[in-house]
Sequence to fold (180 residues):
Amino acid sequence: LVELERRRLEQMSDERLHDHARIAMKQADADTAVAALTMLHARLTDPTQRDTVAYELAIARRQQGTPESLQASAMLLDGLVATHGLGSKLGIGAAQQLVHTHDERGDLAAAMRSADAIVRAPGVTAQQRFQARWSLAIARARHGDRANAHAEFTALQQELAGQPDFAKLLADVERRLRDW
Fold:
């Protein structure tokens, strides 16, 4: 069956293979998405397209949830941050995903370093800073650092209040504080 699936994927065009991977991701079929994205990544020669697929592959690898796949995700994302820096959309997106990947790996210190790098980076938008702080607060809560998580959620609540552009994020922060 594995060989049949590999052959089927090989016969797909790049566009169809990419669509297949995206559908698999929406259906929470990380293994199929990884297989399709790995094949697509190997085929592509354009660096921009390869890096976009590497980003998607990193997310799919994280969704597989094994120690090996989480390590592979972190390596892909680290490479994208190193290549693109925090001044690019892809680089900042990869850094944001690193916070989640490190969290899922159980490495709160690495999640904190990734979030801090985003918060301190020049040219990062307020949305990106708030998102990094929110992600880190969630990671802290998951890893038992409840006091610092609560303090960060409270600070975010105060900073986001009255800013309509951040209404969804504020609503999530307030929900988390209510459920505390």
Notes: The chain is about 80% helix and 0% strand. The chain has a mean pLDDT of 95.
